[in-house]
Amino acid sequence: MLQKIIETIKENAMFNKGDKIIVGVSGGPDSMCLLHILNTLRNTYFIEIVAAHLNHGLRGKDADEDEEYVKRFCEKNNIEFYSKRVNIDELSNAWGISSEMAGREARYSFFQELLTKLDANKIAIAHNANDQCETILMRIIRGTGLEGLEGIKPVRDGIYIRPLIKITRDEIENYCDKNNINPRIDKTNLQNIYSRNKVRLELIPYIKENFNSHIIEVVNRLGENIKVDNDFIEKKSKEFFGKYCIMTPNKVKIKSEAFNEHKALLSRMIRKAVEVVKGNLVNFERVHVEYVISLQRGNTGKEIELPGGIRALNNYGEIILSKEDKNEIERDLGIYEIHLNEKNKIGKFNIEASILDKKFLERVRENSWEQYFDYQKVNGNISLRYRKEGDKFQPLGMKGTKKLKDIFMDLKVPKSIRDDIPIICVGEEIAWIVGYRISDKFKVDKTTNKILKIKLESEEEKW
To answer: Are 118 and 22 a contacting pair, CB within 8 Å?
Structure first.
């Protein structure tokens, strides 16, 4: 079992030497197993581990005993321990969501607090193969696409890691027995009060008894197989989006040629375009994709309204998705991912992004087309885009953020060229307003070991 976990860690590059890892620990079998294993591996991988326990305040004395149990275990094993108490019922009412969802939100919020406070790198969650099976089955029941059938991702957002994702609950319980771990048992997990509990306690046992005793392994294998195919389609769809979609503030224009491509890619591109304009895909379903395709095949000038107040307009075969008036003139803009250690040709720009040792800084010269960032602070894809409404930025030396519009005004940047200035982003954060300012969030400082160098060359340097 330990070898399987090590392989999962390596296969998914879950952490690096010297990483500090926040481990979410409830006191139950799964999380205690995870904590024990990471504690066993910490000298091998030179990692630091920190246990984080959230007391939900739902089970009275039992909840307090859970917290005390985890605390004692950490003291005995010399593991740094943090806990927090919340009232889930109050949060549930305040947020207007179920207590189950409120508990999840509170846990992840606590983990994120610690991640920032302790300058940690990763958050380890004890999801296992049984959880994976339950998740995929629930998504099938509710209706989902390929991405949903992947289930729980081993690594999410480069922060959340799940080393036990290929380990079954039986294996976990056996591990606890062999290592004299006596975990706490949450009795609510044995009650059919949530949909997931019904899948766990009724549906899966029924399938095991009547159809396939290896249902856990079979469904997990399904998720792994789908992930391989979905990763390929996602890669192609990103290329597809860059080729056929043009972004402007609050708008995305889909070129007419896009609608000649395979529907699997076209559908994803439409969803991505809506997400860019709307900010999310809430209430945007497959039927709305069909509406957009049908609109493109119709007459120019026709428009439809999509969920979230998004307008879709047929403009001579091109589809313009926007939140603005359909008659407003839009300007074409691009958005593209920048790949490390490759020559990136994006519109009129040639872009190079490479990783260097800190000692390279001694040879750096001032250059508005070349900048340096702390690579360890780069958590997310590196991309180029142009400004959009509501953009905020934290200039070097400033503690808070400032509207990009105000920064341009302060710098006396002519209005006529503001829309043409490229912006380098890390994830959703602006890292560099090319030619003007870099972000304080990604600055090189005395703790920097690895440097990200980004260099742009343009055919027309007009700003």
So the answer is: yes
